[in-house]
């Protein structure tokens, strides 16, 4: 309970600070004891007609966030990873073997990027955590903050939005003109590894699904209409990310 409270306070501080800098929606109310935050409503627009402007806007906002986030507590991400590692160790042997490679990658994640690219990263910068109202971008959910490559958040949003190379270059060039596309591409592999591990860590009673085969490789593909199906949905999501990770390593082209 204290652990969850500490993480919430770190997240709350980052949310309030980001709100003050115009990076996140304005905080309307929060309750530390009940651990919830209420922010102003943002009418997020996603009509497909303004994708390039949306990409430019979120890239510039992410750059500002990375500059501002230097003052945020960076330990949340380490807490999260310790949880994932503990859950990995409790997996059935077959699943441990399946996810062994991604486990070791995330265990040594600080070795996957150059020190000059090190920032306090959002680390969960997928499309559901980015709101675009037609003119401005807002970032939400700061419960994964921690040191990582600046390219990790960029890689995450690229995978989440299924960007093709041209739009990836739009994303990167609006973040900063001195970008390295190879480093960005490598972080897409690390991103897939991280989400594979974090997703499988959420599966309760994993032995029930150990013989279930998942052939899909659709990242951020969530299919769960009933709460009773949540564990099998998490299992499928984890293997989708794992299969996607393997396809990226093989340098296979992927289209949504």
UniProtKB/TrEMBL annotation:
Molecular function (Gene Ontology), one example: transferase activity
Keywords in alphabetical order: Transferase
InterPro entries noted in UniProt: Aminoglycoside_PTrfase, Kinase-like_dom_sf
Superkingdom of this protein's organism: Bacteria
Record-annotated Aminoglycoside phosphotransferase domain positions: 25-176
Protein name: Phosphotransferase
Species classification: Bacteria, Bacillati, Bacillota, Bacilli, Bacillales
